[in-house]
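User: I need a structural model of Heparinase II/III-like protein from Mariniflexile fucanivorans for a docking pre-check later this week. Nothing fancy, just the predicted structure tokens so I can convert them on my end. Input:
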Amino acid sequence: MNMKRKMKALICFGCFLFFAVAFSYNNQKKDTLNIVEYFKQADGDQIYPSAKQMEMLKKVMPKEAYQAAPQISDRNYWDAIAATPSGKAYLEKAESLLDEKPEVPISDEIYRRANKEGNRGIYKPRYYRTMDRLEHFILAECLENKGRFLPQINTYIQAIMDMKSWLHPNHDDRDNGVLEGKRVSIDLGARKFGGVLAIAESLLGNSLSEAIQAEIKKQLQWRITDSYLKSCKKPDGNNTWLNGTSNWNSVCTSGAVLVTITNSESAEERLAAVGSSINSMKHYISGFGADGYCSEGLGYWGYGFNHYLYIAQMLSDYTNGKINLFHFDNPEKLRNVGNFPEHFEIQNGTCAPFADGVSHTESSGSNFAEVLSSKYYGAIKPSEIRMEEAVEQIMAWNNPKMFNVNKESETQNSELNGHTYFDDFGMVISRGKQKVPFSIAIKAGHNAENHNHSDVGTYILVIDKDLITGDIGAPSYTAGSFSKDNKARSSWGHPVPRINNTLQSNGREFEGKITETIFKNDSDKVVMDIKPAYELAMLKSLTRTMVNDKSGTGVISIEDDFTASEPVTFGTAIMTYSKYEIIDNQTVILTSKSQKVKAEVTGVGGKIKIKDEQVPVKALREGGTAYRIGIDFEKPIKEGRITIKYTPIN
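Assistant: Understood. Predicted structure tokens for Heparinase II/III-like protein:
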């Protein structure tokens, strides 16, 4: 009988535990923001959260303001950080900057010149150096707590607050409306000024004078929070990035949210800022392909997704994990985006400089996005950790295990596949596996991509580490660099067809479609229809075919076939930074720093002529001088084919 009672008691206790765990799990799910449901409650396309969304946020948001780290007065926290190798290195770097002369405030004269000339060089280096120093001084003072850095901190803060505009000058309007006090706007620069001042006031507290603290709060309110929330409620021409799909959205949003949830004394404003950021990030994430493709390129992936993950980590910390932007409303897509760098690499650290992207992965700048992608998306963990912003560094100190470098025991398989196919955007990387690998990246895409170059059908050939021919990348950001008539940005400066002296048109409808792919161990083939990229009524068909024969030293061919209802002039181009020699109308020898490739040209339907000319753009981001080697039929024809066969020369 006693045994029966014990059994009943155990069963009852087991049932209690089951229901307790179930209740706890369901309660946890209930307390976590359901982002899919959150979007269903949106007020149309308005960024500012609806009343129903605000009610959902109240259940997961704390009532107090965000604190990235404890104040300087919490010596248990800061002394522990100061004793770590990272803390010691950070303090050492800050000490090395103490004697540097402040470069702010940046004068109105320089601001106006930079705006008028599009001259970033006279402004941005000062801005970057200023913000880097101030961030180091703030955190160093927290680490050391001796007052050594306070004079410089006060000087920098006051100088920044004395500046009439926090924008990068080239982001102001032609009349310098923000500088002249006619409007308030947030850009990539203003969000940074705001974020650093918010961290300074939040961490240093009474180490700053009451007057400085009050003035920081006042300026952050009108320069950032008021401007941000006003534009979220109703588009006003100031913060047009709010529903954008480019890096601007995530970067500017990160600063606006950091400032508001740290600085604002209104719980309603803090709720609205977080809610607006979630609605805004839906637009940002929509700019990636379902396959994770980033049309802005690897550099802007690092910059934009870096700040998206910065927001995600900040909101996760702020709400104790109740807001999860790491999964958002589409975990699979976020996983693909997080793994984009590995999939986008061509070989040996090179990648396609399509649009305004970079061509080489470099060990510089923050790799915060790569670190968090390794944690949340299974991406390869970096072998070094690089931080650029104070909030990133604080997050690293708060999560030391996550920010440990990749050890030998943790190494992951990083061997690149024979090909990568981003089927959503229509981009293929075909990788050679020769002793000296010969590979190609080629894309269809469309002419409304972020940082678009009107480049449907463009490609880049890489042999070993050298970009031997193909896309020449972006013009440097100077006055006129974003003009559609800039020859490095239009299809004139890309290895794509030119028909009846007509270039590709701009817009979402002007696109390419990959119609066939064949991927094998020894060869890859891609066929794309690029006719829709041109507004030419007489053009009946235009097909580009790429074949990568991976046998031997490799052969890569690009073939363009066209038909028209009437005779048209038709040609394509070899684009290159390499030295070259035009042997005859069928042969061009391209010589890079350490490699050599022969380009053999054949035409069907007419006689071919080759004519070279320098790309008339003074400043190209890849550096050096680029050339367009035009390959054209001598006379108009109704149908024809041009094939360029590239073969490495040993």
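Before docking, keep this in mind: Residues 35-398 form a domain with the Glycosyltransferase fold (CATH 1.50.10.100).
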